[in-house]
Amino acid sequence: MVRSFPSLKARAEWIPWALECIKTNGGDYRAMEACIVVCWRNISQRTKEPSTKNSLRAVFGPTLRHLELITGEGDEIKLTAKGDELLEIYNSDGELGYGKAFAKHLVKLDKERWVGLVFEVQNFRRPMLQDELLDYLRQKYPNFGINRDKLKKLLLHYAYTGLMKLEANVIHLREPLLHSLMTGLEPRLSDQQFIQALHKAYKKLSTGLIGSPYVPIPKVRDEVCRDTKIWPSDFDRHLQRLPKETSEYLIHLTEPMLRKPDGIRIAGKYLYYFAIYEKR
Amino acid sequence: MADLDAYQLRQNPFEIVSHAHEMANRKEEWTHVSKSLYSAFEAKSPRFIFLLGDWGEGKSYILDQIYRSLSGTIDREGRVFVARMRSRVLYPKPLVLRESEPRWQKFGLDLIIRVLNNIARDKWSEVLRKANLGGLDSVYLKVFQGLRDNEESAFKYIAGRKLGTDELKKLEVSEPLTSSPQVIELFFDFLRAIRLAGYSNFLLLLDEFEYITAILGEVRITQVLNTFREIFDHCGYYGPGEIASPIFFFAISPGGWERLKELESSARKKTGGGGIAPFMERVILRDIIHLKPFAFEDTKQLVKLRLEEARTKKVTDPFHPFTEMCIEYVHGLSFNKPRNVIQYCSILLEDALDEGLEKIDEKDAKRILEKYGIYPTGSESAGNST
């Protein structure tokens, strides 16, 4: 098998609805294209209208092909078995279940078809700069046409799954998650273990806070995932169903003032700050 | 609506507009508020105090309680420029930081004009009569004398309205209020005037401070906060006891406070200490008061107190007509916010009365509230994007 470096032009979070458009409009290229344009227009922050001509042909089509989620040309475009499976998971389990399934698929493709980017990062055994990784990959794979944009887009797909965290220009690999993905051994936490981990993380992050007791949820999530080796999606699932008040503690979550990514949605509210109170 | 007497109640006690109700389980926070205020009154120097609390957790209520209590409990000696009755009140309600559509785009001008313009006419007269204005060396002396003597032109002036030549001449001012430095000077002369009347402090209660962090960009937020910082620093030009020390009491949501901290941190990174950092440096950490979310025990206390206020006769069950399970259910829906508890109890009480229920239990609460689209928080949707 010839290896390559994928050019993923569409964002990872857009893939489920693009798959839905293709599935529901199967056999009609124009209808698939129109559906994608409408969805894209609704979520795009660009002032420029998405191009009807290019949306499926040049953006979503190539991305979904690289990801091996569609097959065929023109009116014959349809979802692959994997595309069908991922869409089904998304529709039944939501973004949390989908994120994990998509991560498994991405790692498998990376290992078998691409340059094994995630394993290259793992080999460094430390957080690394994107430019440093780019230089390394260019040297190792001089004929793969790897550039900054292509690298960043693949890294963003990994970040979406939670396997990597991108902070400014620095790449952090969540090793335990990769390990559990590769071995199929996923840690399971009881509610009690989760609460303990939550308390421990909050105590660590809130030490020294005066006045306001709130800590951003992404920091708590990251700390708990590091400690317990669970996936970010499992953290969210645990936190969503956890009783927010018992005889011992009260968990309080509150909204951000401005739009901020990586919070959590509970009962229709988008929440970003987190605090635990011991009962009075 | 049927007669609430069936529940031994004079009226529905669950209304959210009035704050004239007994405080439920906020002892710790209230002690902190009192300590911060008392310390500020004693220090006789400017102060910024922050009250942090989520929407519906009772910030406006606490501000109103401060207002009421200053009539006696905290400020026994009447040193703080506040008054107890509406007609004589400095601010009929805690001042919002910015009106939805402010008349003036200059923040300092807008704020101070509204502060001065909110003082009732008889309060101006009462206070300024106590002051020996002869001892006030100010370009606005005639304005203060006009306010004392209830002259229309003086009130027009502090409202920032246009004045005729004769009126300007009478007040011995050259132009109407149009700039922030001009009103800040007027504000400090006002602080000197009320000091002469015996007030050592001037307390300004500012509600919904998070509003500025939600609608303004970094540059405008910095301008707003620098106006307060300028007033704070300007106090240093006056000798001890020369002015009534301004104390600014801000109520803000946790999200708003975190936004200020982020702006402070980014200002330090970018400029090493510019932007809003100088304002934040003037906030003493012990003057940050945090309203805790309501626990179940707090909710029970709140419901009990509200019901007690409206009882027509003594009852054995303090929660009647609610069962304790019903209150627990309401608490579970409330996001630990007293405002939600009050609203949900109000709905339950009125619907139960219409339905002729003798008691309101958990099942009734679930059925009635779901009718209004209020569901338990168990059915959460997944997703981690805004």
Rg calculated over all Cα atoms of chain A: 21 Å
Which percent bin holds the helix content of chain B? 40-55%
The total of helices of chain B stands at: 16
Structural class of chain B: alpha/beta
> First CA to last CA of chain A: what distance?
64 Å
- H/E topology pattern of chain B: HEHEHHHHHHEHHEHHEHHHH
Number of beta-strand segments of chain B: 5
Largest interface: pair, residues per side: A-B, 43 and 37 residues
| Global Rg of chain B | 24 Å
Low-confidence stretches of chain A: none
The CATH level-2 architecture of the largest domain in chain B is identified as 3-Layer(aba) Sandwich
In one word, what is the shape of chain A? globular
The CATH superfamily of the largest domain in chain B is identified as P-loop containing nucleotide triphosphate hydrolases
Report low-confidence residues of chain B grouped into runs of 5 or more: 83-93, 379-386
Please summarize the sheet with the most strands of chain B. Answer: 5 strands, parallel
Summarize the structure.
The complex is a heterodimer of chains A (280) and B (386). Chain A has 280 residues and is an alpha+beta fold.
Structure keywords:
heterodimer; A: 280 residues; alpha+beta; Arc Repressor Mutant, subunit A; 3-stranded antiparallel beta sheet; 11 helices; 12% strand; B: 386 residues; alpha/beta; Rossmann fold; Helicase, Ruva Protein, domain 3; 2 domains; 5-stranded parallel beta sheet; 16 helices; 48% helix; disordered C terminus
Q: What does this entry look like structurally?
A:
The complex is a heterodimer of chains A (280) and B (386). Chain A has 11 helices and 10 strands. By secondary structure, chain A is α+β, with helices and mostly antiparallel strands. Chain A has 2 domains: 12-176, no CATH class; 191-278, Orthogonal Bundle (Arc Repressor Mutant, subunit A), CATH 1.10.10. In chain A, the strands form 4 sheets. Chain A has a 3-stranded antiparallel beta sheet with strand order 3-5-4. Chain A has a 3-stranded antiparallel beta sheet with strand order 6-10-7. The longest helix of chain A has 32 residues, at 81-112. Chain B has a 5-stranded parallel beta sheet. The longest helix of chain B has 18 residues, at 254-271. The interface between A and B is large, with 43 and 37 residues.
